[in-house]
Amino acid sequence: MPSVQFPAMRFAHLDSVELPQVARVKLVHPRGEPIGDVAQAVRDAVLQSRRLQNLPAGSSVAVALGSRGIAKIPLIAKAAIDTVRAMGHEPFIVPAMGSHGGGTAAGQVDVLRKLGLSEEALGAPVHATMNVVDYGVTPDGSRCKFDKNAAGADAVVVINRVKSHTTFDREIESGLVKMVAVGLGKAEGARSVHRTGPPAFMDVLPELARISLEKSPIALGIALVENAQKDLVVVEGVAPEDFFESDKRLLKVAKSFIARLPFGKMDALVVELIGKDISGAGMDYAVMGRADLRTIPNPAEPFASRVTVLGLSEATGGNGLGVGLADFSTVDVVSRIDLQQIYMNSLTSTLVEKSRIPIVLENDLDALRATVSTSWSRSDPETRLCIIRSTLHLEEILVSASLLDEVQASGKAADIGPLFDLRFDEQGRMLSHAYARDEAGDVK
Length: 444
What we know:
By secondary structure, the chain is an alpha/beta fold. It has helices at residues 38-47, 50-53, 73-86, 105-114, 119-122, 148-151, 176-183, 186-194, 199-215, 243-255, 285-288, 331-335, 339-349, 364-373, 404-410, and strands at 22-27, 60-65, 90-95, 132-137, 143-147, 155-161, 218-226, 232-238, 265-271, 303-309, 328-330, 359-361, 385-388, 396-400, 413-420. 29% of the residues lie in helices and 20% in strands. The strands form four sheets. A six-stranded mixed β-sheet has the order 10-9-13-14-1-15, sandwiched between helices. A five-stranded mixed β-sheet has the order 3-2-6-7-8, sandwiched between helices. It is globular. The model is unreliable at 438-444 (pLDDT under 50). Residues 74-240 form the DUF362 domain. This is DUF362 domain-containing protein. InterPro entries: DUF362 (IPR007160).
């Protein structure tokens, strides 16, 4: 794994920084009605597909799976595969993740495996390739590419979550349409979408999807929506001709469930974990307020003067994309980043800002001290500090005293604990986590 080793630099003046006390806050977010039997909902979606029903027995069906950490995705994928097989067809799995996994077939198989989507777990072979077929050209000259294995199947089932994108708002963001244009377009298709920058998401991506939907054997989409607690609240079968309408409609539903912090402005935001399973950009801009694209302004709120990243999620492996949105990180974090992966993502997406390396300090303690001391607060103890596990996990957060009035006024707090000092071990690793943990160190 190509990575970088930073020296453990010391800055004596950081020793005098007084970190503010924090309180544990439990937040309430919209929940909706979680689906009780997810597997049955998936089976119903597959069985209702007229295109699959009309296929002759023994037809090959590619089930397209992506790289996102979707709730219960192994259960969903297996239910879809088992149902396709029960209909008399021969299912197989194709990775539909653009250039993720380092832009290699083996890397994409490994991404699926880490998500519990292996051949052994799902009972169907994985046919991975970076080779594509060319379906033609869009009005602006972009070539439409499509996974060669999927193109050769008798039918394709596309499974994806509908959610807000991690960069900026538009009518259609992440969902079935994007998986068709980018995910199944592999690295070449992803480059076609990204090559002209953010406007391509509004202009090029829909045109590529339209061509693929017309020319490919896509038979069904299974659209998923999660609430803030990662419960599935929508499992819906979608015919190919309805992908656009479904994405637009369900995006509004998905955005109604986004968990948000109970205040708009912070001096300092500390994120314990980033990762591709958390957000396509490692951290969700709707929570932390930074997209940092030169052509797209950041939202006025939420706003954090300083952002610090302290870790990578286990599921993301070495993919530390998004660390470039932070101001500070640690030697431990950057030494675990697979540069091949994040550079491949940035070279494909053309959004190079997310792969830059922030200021790297020796440990969590120094990183927090630097965060507080540079945050433009009037004094260290008055710093408006918030610590979160990730931008996906906001049921419990740690906040400093200067933010508590806004937390209470927001009406989103179910419980606010007493103030306490942040704790660190002898190596400077933070022991006071945003989620309460048991004696074994596991999240309760």
